[in-house]
Amino acid sequence: MSRFNGSIDERFETPLPPERVRALLADTALWVELQQDVETAREVGPSTLDVTLKAHQHGPVQFQGRFVATWSTEGDTVRWRSAAGSGANFEIDGKATVTPHGSGSEVHWVESVSAEIPVNRIVRKMVAPIADRMMARGLRGYVERVRDHLARA
User: What's the Cα-to-Cα distance from 33 to each of 62, 106, 117, 131, rounded to whole Å?
Assistant: First the structure.
C-alpha cells in the first residue's frame, strides 16, 4: 500500500454573514450535495457521515475511498475530519475559518486528504506527483463549488 496526499490553503470572500456561512459549511447534507465523487453517504451519528467514494480507475490502478468523518463548529471555525480507527482507506482533515469582512465574510479554507492505494513503491514513485496534483485539484474544485453556492445562497 502507498499513501497519496493532496492539500489546499485558500481564501475567498462571500457576501453572506459569518454565522450563515458557518451554518452552511457545517451542513453535512450540503457537503454531500456539492461533492462530485460520493457514491454513498449515510449519517451514522450527529454531524457524522460514513462515506464511500465512487471508484476510480487510472491505468491498472483502481481505488474506491471510504471514510467516516465528523463536522463540528469551534468558535469561528468549522472543522471536518476522519474518525480514527474506522478502517478507512481515505482520510480528510479540514477547517474553514470564517471571519467578518466588510458586509460579508472571508473564508480561510485549509484541507488535506490522504488515500491509501494498493500500489507498490516503484509505481508510487512514478505516479505520486500526478496523483497528488489530482487530489489537490479535486479539493480546489470542491471549494469552487462551495464558493459559488455561497454566492447564490
Answer: 24, 22, 26, 24
